[in-house]
């Protein structure tokens, strides 16, 4: 069985069932000091073993990716009662794909991406929210949203999965089904885990 196909069909079902997690995932990272952090991200395309995310390189998460200090993606669809924990290598998306995707971002998000270039890194501390809103107002005056292009620090990444831990809570007796899928030589192999 291919666990990625399972994720895709669960995701489609989660969308039909209006699951609020249908289009998101949770990305855990460790930094060079071993400090863990986790955040919600929109999960874009899932193609073959590739899970696409859009982030900003000014965020500390980019450093964690480039340092290779550890990452794992988690998907939980309450509507279908399955959790997926996904790991694998990280690859940056081609600039052309990032640019064309960026044009479809909501206007507010586009201005925020400019804020990261001009005011400060994503997740950095500022003295007040007014500094942020003043900057946004100034950008809105200076730049027409329709003609904005993706700034250089916008990035897309693909997590190329080679390990997926699936926890299925659909057994009535609470003896959950848990399997570890590993990808090697073009095929997925599954082993049963104690849940
Ligand atoms: C529903 C939802 C979707 C989000 N999608 C993204 C996203 O696609 N990309 C992103 O960089 N941050 C996204 N965020 C914000 C992140 O969770 C996080 O706050 C931000 O990226 C800063 O994280 P950092 O500490 O890694 O810099 C989303 C948050 C929520 C609640």
Fold topology:
Layout: H1 3-16, E1 24-30, E2 36-42, E3 46-47, E4 50-56, H2 60-67, E5 71-77, E6 82-92, H3 95-102, H4 107-118, H5 129-142, E7 154-168, E8 177-184, E9 187-192
Antiparallel strand pairs: 1-2, 1-5, 3-4, 4-7, 5-6, 6-7, 7-8, 8-9
Helix pairs in contact: 4-5
Bound molecules: flavin mononucleotide.
The site of flavin mononucleotide has 13 residues, from strand 2, strand 4 and helix 2.
Report what the structure shows.
This protein is of the alpha+beta class. It has two domains: 3-102 and 152-192, Pnp Oxidase, Chain A; 104-148, no CATH class. It is built from five helices and nine strands; from the N terminus they run αββββαββαααβββ. It has helices at residues 3-16, 60-67, 95-102, 107-118, 129-142, and strands at 24-30, 36-42, 46-47, 50-56, 71-77, 82-92, 154-168, 177-184, 187-192. Strands 1, 2, 3, 4, 5, 6, 7, 8 and 9 form a nine-stranded antiparallel β-sheet that branches. α4 (107-118) packs across α5 (129-142). The radius of gyration is 19 Å and the shape is elongated. Flavin mononucleotide is lined by residues 24, 39-42, 54-56, 59-61, 122-123. Residues 24, 39-42, 54-56, 59-61, 122-123 line the site of flavin mononucleotide.
The termini sit apart by 19 Å
CATH topology of the largest domain: Pnp Oxidase, Chain A
Question: Which CATH architecture of the largest domain?
Answer: Roll
On the 0-100 scale, what is the average pLDDT? 97
**Which class do the helix and strand fractions yield?**
alpha+beta
Low-confidence spans: none
Quaternary status of these chains? single chain
Level-1 CATH class name of the largest domain: Mainly Beta
Helicity, as a percent range: 25-40%
Please trace the helix and strand order, writing H or E for each element.
HEEEEHEEHHHEEE
Number of helices: 5
CATH fourth-tier homologous superfamily of the largest domain: Electron Transport, Fmn-binding Protein, Chain A
When the domains are counted, the total is 2
> Hey, roughly how much beta strand do the residues contain?
35-45%
The small-molecule ligands in this entry are:
flavin mononucleotide
Radius of gyration: 19 Å
Total number of strands: 9
Identify the overall geometry.
elongated
* Largest sheet report: 9 strands, antiparallel
């Amino acid at each position: 069985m291919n666990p990625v196909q399972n994720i895709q069909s669960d995701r489609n079902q989660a969308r039909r069932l209006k699951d609020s997690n249908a289009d998101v995932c949770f990305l855990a990272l460790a930094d060079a000091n071993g400090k863990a952090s986790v955040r919600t991200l929109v999960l874009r395309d899932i193609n073959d073993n590739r899970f696409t995310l859009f982030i900003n390189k000014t965020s500390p998460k980019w450093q964690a990716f480039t340092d290779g200090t550890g990452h794992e993606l988690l998907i939980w669809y309450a509507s279908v009662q399955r959790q997926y924990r996904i790991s694998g290598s990280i690859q940056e998306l081609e600039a052309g794909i990032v640019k064309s995707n960026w044009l479809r971002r909501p206007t507010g998000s586009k201005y925020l991406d400019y804020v990261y270039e001009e005011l400060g890194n994503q997740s950095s501390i500022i003295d007040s929210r007014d500094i942020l809103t003043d900057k946004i107002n100034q950008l809105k005056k200076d730049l027409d949203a329709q003609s904005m292009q993706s700034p250089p620090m916008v990035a897309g990444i693909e997590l190329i999965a080679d390990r997926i831990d699936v926890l299925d809570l659909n057994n009535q007796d609470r003896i959950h089904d848990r399997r570890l899928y590993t990808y090697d030589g073009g095929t997925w192999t599954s082993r049963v885990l104690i849940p």
